[in-house]
Design a protein that fits this description.
This protein has about 160 residues and is of the alpha+beta class. It contains four helices and seven strands. Helix 2 packs antiparallel against helix 4. It is globular and about 50 Å long.
Length: about 160
């Protein structure tokens, strides 16, 4: 079983590579990716991305960095330590990627078309619970896991414009 601090094999999945000198590119062992259905209006893409990213953050606190602070000492909330790749796909490709990600045991947050008609978390969870996996209509999903596994699960998606 996957837990927030372990990968599918039960081993720790480091969120960040060892410290490198400033200016050296950092390569992360894990990937955070959001995939959106390409026909969504912009406001829905943004809304879905926010909800899905929150799911990854809640489940994987080890990939959250330190709080920010500006030169005046104003403190800001921490963010992910690593980039979030935002992709898009048509409906069938998204459904295929969703099934692959779930089948590979990756951490998956899902946003289905039914959630646009609800207004709270309880009703959102009930809407997802009411539909079997093979009949879900995802309009977006977020995936976190080992970089190569995420890349293979999301094959066929493309970078969001």
């Amino acid at each position: 079983m996957n837990t927030p601090s372990t990968g599918s094999a039960g081993t720790a999945a480091p969120a960040v590579a060892p410290a490198a000198p400033a200016g050296t590119p950092v390569r992360f062992d894990t990937r955070i990716a959001v995939v959106l259905r390409g026909d969504l209006p912009v406001w829905q893409r943004l809304n879905v991305t926010a909800f899905l990213s929150g799911g990854v953050a809640a489940a994987h606190t080890e990939i959250i960095g330190e709080p920010y602070e500006d030169a005046d000492g104003t403190r800001y909330l921490p963010m992910f330590r690593q980039p979030v790749v935002v992709l898009e796909a048509d409906g069938e490709t998204l459904r295929t990627a969703h099934r692959r990600a779930v089948g590979r045991g990756l951490s998956v947050a899902v946003f289905t078309a039914d959630l646009f008609a609800t207004g709270n978390d309880r009703d959102n969870r009930a809407a997802v619970r009411a539909v079997p996996l093979d009949r879900l209509d995802p309009v977006g999903m977020a995936v976190h896991g080992p970089r190569n596994s995420v890349d293979r699960a999301l094959k066929g998606t493309r970078m969001h414009p």
